[in-house]
Design brief:
It is a single chain. The protein is of the alpha+beta class. The chain has one domain: DD-peptidase/beta-lactamase superfamily (Beta-lactamase), CATH 3.40.710. Strands 1-2-3 form a 3-stranded antiparallel beta sheet. The model has no long low-confidence stretch (mean pLDDT about 75). About 35% of the residues lie in helices and about 15% in strands. About 20% of the residues are buried.
Length: about 110
């Protein structure tokens, strides 16, 4: 799709771009294991989007060999598993996201 302001081609569905390219060398493994479209930065931040539900942001400066946050990956994996937020899998144990947040997401992560 052509942007009328910048005259540059853009992705019609930005989640496709995020899913495929935004976690350096581990984007494919990330989507299979965690299932949250995300972008990481070399500072240790990871920003994830679950379309129509929520956004997630985690930060921890310790990086792995692929320049992704070690604890951020663990946190996103845990959140995805505990709340059933994997976008590529149909989870039988879907947790109502808002009930989990109001019921104490912090307690789920501990």
């Amino acid at each position: 799709m052509l942007c009328i302001y910048t005259h540059l081609y853009t992705y019609e569905h930005p989640y496709t771009y995020i899913t495929l390219f935004c976690l350096f060398d581990v984007a494919g493994n990330w989507m299979v294991d965690v299932g949250i479209p995300a972008k990481s930065g070399v500072s240790g931040s990871i920003f994830g989007v679950i379309p129509g539900i929520c956004g997630i942001s985690v930060y921890s400066p310790r990086l792995n060999s692929s320049f992704n946050s070690v604890r951020g990956i663990e946190a996103c994996t845990l959140i995805s598993q505990r709340l059933g937020l994997h976008v590529l899998q149909k989870s039988k144990s879907k947790v109502n996201f808002w009930e989990a947040v109001t019921g104490g997401l912090y307690a789920i992560l501990i």
